[in-house]
Amino acid sequence: MLLSGVFPPLTTPFASDGSISLPDLEHNILQYNGTDLAGYVVLGSTGESVLLTKAEMEGIFVTAKEAAAREKKLIAGTGAESTAETIERTKRAAELGYDAALVKTPHYYKPAYKPDVLIAHYRRVADASPIPLLLYSVPQFTGIALEPPEIAALAEHPNIIGIKDSSGSVQRLAETITTVPEAFQVLVGSASTVYPCLTIGACGAILALACALPEKCVTLFELFRQGHHEKARQLQSVLVRASKLIVSECGIAGVKYVMDQRGYRGGIPRLPLPPLSNEQKTRISDFLAHLEPAMARA
Amino acid sequence: MLLSGVFPPLTTPFASDGSISLPDLEHNILQYNGTDLAGYVVLGSTGESVLLTKAEMEGIFVTAKEAAAREKKLIAGTGAESTAETIERTKRAAELGYDAALVKTPHYYKPAYKPDVLIAHYRRVADASPIPLLLYSVPQFTGIALEPPEIAALAEHPNIIGIKDSSGSVQRLAETITTVPEAFQVLVGSASTVYPCLTIGACGAILALACALPEKCVTLFELFRQGHHEKARQLQSVLVRASKLIVSECGIAGVKYVMDQRGYRGGIPRLPLPPLSNEQKTRISDFLAHLEPAMARA
Amino acid sequence: MLLSGVFPPLTTPFASDGSISLPDLEHNILQYNGTDLAGYVVLGSTGESVLLTKAEMEGIFVTAKEAAAREKKLIAGTGAESTAETIERTKRAAELGYDAALVKTPHYYKPAYKPDVLIAHYRRVADASPIPLLLYSVPQFTGIALEPPEIAALAEHPNIIGIKDSSGSVQRLAETITTVPEAFQVLVGSASTVYPCLTIGACGAILALACALPEKCVTLFELFRQGHHEKARQLQSVLVRASKLIVSECGIAGVKYVMDQRGYRGGIPRLPLPPLSNEQKTRISDFLAHLEPAMARA
Amino acid sequence: MLLSGVFPPLTTPFASDGSISLPDLEHNILQYNGTDLAGYVVLGSTGESVLLTKAEMEGIFVTAKEAAAREKKLIAGTGAESTAETIERTKRAAELGYDAALVKTPHYYKPAYKPDVLIAHYRRVADASPIPLLLYSVPQFTGIALEPPEIAALAEHPNIIGIKDSSGSVQRLAETITTVPEAFQVLVGSASTVYPCLTIGACGAILALACALPEKCVTLFELFRQGHHEKARQLQSVLVRASKLIVSECGIAGVKYVMDQRGYRGGIPRLPLPPLSNEQKTRISDFLAHLEPAMARA
Asked: From the candidates B147, B176, B193, which should be mutated to test the interface with C, based on the most C CB atoms within 10 A?
């Protein structure tokens, strides 16, 4: 199970009445099938998974599996607060044919979630899971970062094959890579540092920005893979600005807005996530208008 | 709806097979009915609400309502990540006869939850709720603190009657109290600062420690109310140590362990929350052995 | 050496050419001599000590000692980054007749200043000092907080008699007080929590706000001491607002501006500290205009 | 004034009586003169500048200037808390023939040092300085980070030619590089991310690790410059471990200990900085013993 390449964490489209729209999800996936994305993460943070009901999650898992092209790898976001529910979701994803599970750290009872508690949690899930696990560290949402020592301890488990590190810390990622066995796969979760992370040994990337600008993200990966470092640097520079504006400042609503401009079905996020302001929409539109010329220069 | 006095956020007892034990919950409430606790918070953070299924929550809401003595006020913890689910839970609690709802801040998408987004969320819930709301700020778990300006804005809503502030910041609580209308009720959520918070105008307290040591917490409140400041200071000093050891260091497992020693049904928390180590149990037992003499001296 | 009561950390007046103005300092102290302030802190954080040259510090130490009334206790701020310089400054203050030294934590090399390193530093200074020491924890400036375990360890040193805790955490202060011997004196360093801190056992306060509003701060202390809890609560409520506006939002420039309004010589701070904006001046003036009526009502 | 390449921030050697040892400093510089280091930073954070007296600083500035080879660029650390003293130190460095000044952010009064205050401070220093300035952001020591908007604003000043960013955040560095004019020179200050930072456009590095392992750091820079990306990646991986152990965990004492092993005069730091424990010495010695074989493999 090699996870090289770029994966978007699919957004969840909503219908005008606020319910999820599985046809729109299918539409998006069919379009992504035509790109060189390596696969899809279903029900990650960008998928608004914490805002969905259990029944909605099931519908999304089923629809995404059916719509995804055969060659695309499918990673299911299955992390819940309780160990038991995480295992239940992971088993269901395995039943449905997902290739791997992405398990975020439990986080509500932060003061209790010391490294040994997190290690025990992940080992229980990995023991019970029929499919391999990816650890998922996303401290900007959870307030908890997996650090190299606990990652290294968990990398010894035969059913834990890698990590998505969305902390944005290249230093932590570098320390992780020097600490884990070579086969352990480190994926970066922030578009603004993809290229530098690839240069130090990350094998792939799971990027919210790839929902909106999949070709650009794939091109960056390919430029690196083929050793075109100067071009990679220039494209990364553009994506730094794109990521800052679209993902960091505007969040899921920003990603969905760009999708709407590009033939995907984005829509607006579920409350309490706010829709974009007009000012934000204008800034994004202006940015996109200058994107192709900027790319052409780069 | 006056929320003066001390409220424990009830713990959730689990049977040996890991399922919730409603008879144990009933047992605990019947015992608490004999104390001077002002009422109960059902499904708060100490109730491990984020580790429970929807069906388990329903069972707990129903059982607690039935077991609680008529004169005890009942506050339902109904905060979920999505606005819609928060409203749904709040309506269900109202149907069941709960007096008020305690709504924690949504928190997963922290960078998006700016003050105006939180205000909009709370207003939507308050508009839709048949029962009055208490805001709930608990940054040690959520990473988000409600600050005096947004609390003051929300205090203008006729269906928002107060706040539980568990941040532990007496300064923030003091600023809140000087900012909101006098009728807005501020409850403190940390046992180590109850007495100083009462001296500056808090009207009550919701304390995990009150699950384990209800009489002590009630006594502290009464000492303050009757103007016995020196005795209140001495008892607060004992409770500072109790809170630090039992709640801050040992967490929900610590609270439950003391409950087991005192005739309640505590048990162990649900995974990934870890049970106490033997060393922690010994430290708590030693502390409890010295508690009565310390109280007598105080 | 009892440090009960209220102490202002004296501001440093500057002449129009940017040099320090010792006559203005003398003027201020002579006025303060007529109040019930317990004494003065010379060259604390509010005295802009880190912006002064060695020669300027010497002038201030000498002038303050000469101007201070006999019965006022004199505390010298002597903490520097290096242990040797801290000892040198402390010895000089002792020579000049200061009663005690206030020693802030060294802080530049934060990652290295683990508790045992701080303990060793303070022990060396206390061993070498002819006068008793007060520890000084001010994390909003230094990024380092002294915690109850290290405070308790240092409280055993015969030449360390207390602490000024400016962290604003009443919980930490409460834990400190329950941990140290009764003779160890805990002074609070934030005006917004003076009264609640006194109720749990603080013996005094060192308050930037007391430079600007000495009588109000002294009155609060006296109300508490005489058991007028309701009046103390009301005055504290006013001082919460005063402290937030004047000290927290406007800083040293705010304190000096109020001094200028009240017959003291405040002036502006030294660069890079900025002077007040006109908007800030207006807000402070408006606040002061309403202060006496608010006090009268309270 | 091009600042490409690797610069060590020179350590300050102390004699056995605790005074500074200028002959040892000269010895070190003469050795460094034989390497391909691009120049030296004199009195940076690693030089323990905040622990030195004014007279000691003068001696070091003079000695370093005299000992440095003609072709080595000389950067003087001149940042002080006050604007006036920063200007004074910068002018003195210019008089002595330093090529540029490295000015760290003032930081004690953190809450007051908003972006516009920092911008005004740097502009005043830049206006007054006879030599070009490098901004210096080192939040792990100061608690203040310079962010891309203020860096971009300052980059417009003709006498501000670059920045040393020691925050360790590759994302911030990437955003800075995409925001400033091309001529503005960005130097990275953390050895664990040198190579990834070079790939995105940093022009050089100021590294504490380069005091201890100058050749390795220079080799990494050269590998990158010549496009040997795979070898650069492997050497970076070794330096990640070296930097973590020697610099992050052991601090200045760690850097000096390695210098002692390598023919330089390291010695121990000044108090309150602690010397290494025996356990730390053993870990470093073990690491160094495996370093050459690891490099050979890489």
From this structure: B193
